[in-house]
Amino acid sequence: MKSRIAFWNILKKDIKNYYLKPPNISWGIIFPLSWTLMQLIRSPGENILELLPGLMAMSVLFGTTSMLSVTITFERSGRSFERLLLAPISLNVMVLAKIAGTVLFGMFNAFVPIIFASFSTDLKGVNFGIILPAVFMIAVSSALMGLMIAVSANQVFEAQTFSNFFRFPMLFLCGLFIPISDLPLFLRPISYFLPLTYGADMLKSAVTGANTLSPVLSFGILLFFSVTLFLISRHNINRKWIL
Amino acid sequence: MLSVANLKKTYGDFTAVNSISFEVQKGEIFGFLGPNGAGKTSTINMMIGLSRPTSGEVIIDGIDVRKQTKKAQSIMGIVADESNLYNEMNGFENLCFCAALYGMEKSEREAKARDLLEEFRLKDAGKRPFKAYSKGMKRKLTIAAALIHSPQILFLDEPTTGIDVESSRQIRKMIKALKEQGTTVFLTTHYIEEAERICDRIAFIAKGQIVASGTVLELMDSVSHGHSIRFVTSKFAENLTDELQSNFKGSKVTIQSDNTLIMESEERISLLPVMNFLYDKGIDVYEAKELRPSLEDVFVKLTGIESSVLTRDEKKGGRK
User: Fold this and answer.
1) Residue that wins the pLDDT comparison between B297 and A139
2) How many angstroms separate the CA atoms of A73 and A178, rounded?
3) Is B236 on the interface with A (CB under 8 A)?
4) CA nearest B264: which of B256, B233, B287, B281?
5) Which DSSP helix (H) or strand (E) runs through A78?
6) Are strands B227-233 and B260-265 parallel, antiparallel or unpaired?
7) Phi (first) and psi of residue A15, to 5 degrees
8) Is-contact A187 A173, C-beta < 8 A?
9) Sequence-ordered alpha helix ranges (H) in chain B
10) Which of B165, B163, B147, B164 is nearest to B155 (CA)?
11) How far apart are alpha carbons B112 and B147 in whole angstroms?
């Protein structure tokens, strides 16, 4: 009961203080929109459905990884984060509450391209029963990667630098823009160690049906990644922030 | 209420806290006095569960902080050495959020937040964002936030550092009021006069070790041997020095200025015989005062740290 109150209030505070601020709302809309327009201008005849998995995955990835790492690093530099560490709630509840806001923000980001796509194409063939868990799992695993970055960074600019260090390579290795089978042989194993690869495959399955793995298998692997990242993050917080 | 035994913290080769032990009784105000870098914050961080001791134990109200950190934290109020509330939220929201972290229901936390804003004279500022507060107001709201769940023990790390005199005075008054309500208070400070004014007992900490602890009087007695009295007289009494010393065996008399003499003795000095003696010699005594060492003298003597080091810390702290 007490944990539920704490969880809900941490989530509410983060949404109000960070995610609902005009710069972040505009980021959540403008970023996916500009990518959508860029892709359409670059390839005018291309079916927007072909672009949708990539745009959604990118929107979630950029929204979640940067937001969580930046907000946590920001709270740590102002020492308000100590309040959460010193509250009589378990580390699990605290971490879950912190990532919950980011996951919701990431999911909001993901649906912006879908909304824009709905104006220009028919989305009847899109399987939302797969889209929803795919977006959720991409958001969770990306948020947890953002948390790992936050544990390693001391300053906001460090968090942003670390985020870019792995986000961009991941985008090009996850099979969204270049099929994994077209990648040089030595890069292919790396692709299969990236959560985004499985999230992107699920999205492809839901939108175009051009997936290589079963969505259930991808979901299971993403779940495994998320649990592992959660445990690593919790361990790192315990080790690095409680000195 | 609080028992610390052989608490030690090392960072590589550096020992921040070196096997310290002390106890704080329920309803007591206990102060850690020492310069910056003495180990005050390292100690407090281990006691509140923000840092893991290298060795030793901290027991709060029967709860082992190392083993049951979260249970112990539920009965603590913690004020860090910086006012660390959320800049984006107003005073009322900050208090309600802190209450929620302790699992308080909405109606309960809102009522308590309103009471605390009133009590801390921040009612009008309750709707303003925390970032718009003055340093003194920020400090007061941070203390209020630590009290939102009615803790049994309050930890205050440098509660008045860097704030104006009026806010410092209000905070000291609040700390005393908390003691009256039965709250145990552990505070760290590098202000000697603050420790002297509000603490029931004080521990001097230097280089990670407790050099001495006790009440102000106990600490003073630990360095003062014998007694000394200063007499302000109507006439210059230099020629009476030998006569005074021979009449009052074991005493040493020194003339400080024209009309002031100091009489020191291992034994307690009775005032009346000395005054009668001087009166018989045609000298009136205008003032007689027992001279005791100040807490600052005691601190310097026991720690070997000049009080100027603490003064320097005060300047760094930005006290106005």
Assistant:
1) A139
2) 33
3) no
4) B256
5) none
6) antiparallel
7) -60, -45
8) yes
9) 40-48, 69-73, 91-101, 106-119, 135-147, 165-180, 192-198, 216-223, 241-247, 271-280, 295-303, 307-317
10) B147
11) 9
pLDDT digit string (tens) for B92-133?
999 999 999 999 999 999 999 999 999 888 888 889 999 999
Per-residue pLDDT reduced to its tens digit, B163-207: 888 888 888 988 999 899 899 999 998 888 888 889 999 998 888
| Mean of pLDDT over chain B | 86
- Residue A17 sits at the chain B interface (C-beta within 8 Å): yes
Residue reference for tokens 């702290």: B317
The CA distance from A118 to B193, in Å, is: 71
Q: How many residues does chain A have?
A: 243
* pLDDT per residue as tens digits for the range A25-39: 777 778 777 877 777
Which neighbouring-strand residues pair with B129?
A: B90
Residues of A in contact with B157 (CB under 8 A): none
First CA to last CA distance, chain A: 29
**A86 vs B50: CB contact, 8 Å cut-off?**
yes
A 10 A CB-CB count for B151 gives 19
B167 closest CA partner among B201, B131, B143, B193:
B143
Place of tokens 């051009």: A210
Task: Enter the tokens of residue B156.
Answer: 């205050």
DSSP state of B129: B
Q: Do A86 and B103 touch (CB under 8 A)?
A: no
Task: Give the CA distances from residue B94 to residues A73, B108, B150, B300, in Å, rounded to whole numbers and listed in that order.
Answer: 19, 15, 16, 41
* A4: Cα within 13 Å, side-chain hemisphere: 3
What phi, psi does B10 have (nearest 5°)?
A: -120, 145
Are residues A140 and A103 in contact, defined by beta-carbon separation less than 8 angstroms? Answer: yes
- Tell me whether A11 touches chain B (CB under 8 Å): no
User: Judging by DSSP bridges, how do beta strands B184-189 and B201-206 pair with one another?
Assistant: unpaired
In the block, which residue shows the tokens 């302000």? B232
CA distance A90 to A6: 10
C-alpha distances out from residue A38 to A33, A58, A106, Å = 8, 13, 21
Judged by CB atoms closer than 8 Å, whether chains meet at A86 and B71 is answered as: no
Considering only the beta carbons, identify the residue of A17, A88, A242 that sits closest to B52: A242
Residue identified by tokens 């879950």 is A96
Distance separating alpha carbons of residues A114 and B94, to the nearest angstrom = 37
Is A78–B84 a contact, with Cβ atoms under 8 angstroms apart? yes
Flag if A82 and B84 touch (Cβ within 8 Å).
Answer: yes
Four-CA torsion B293, B298, B300, B301, nearest 10 degrees? 100
| Beta carbons of B102 and A13 less than 8 Å apart | no
What is the Cα gyration radius of chain A?
Answer: 18
Q: Look-up: residue for tokens 């500009």?
A: A34
Q: Please, what sign has the CA dihedral across residues A24, A26, A28, A34?
A: negative
Residue of A12, A83, A94 to mutate, interface with B, max B Cβ within 10 Å: A83
CB-based contact, B52 to chain A, within 8 Å: yes
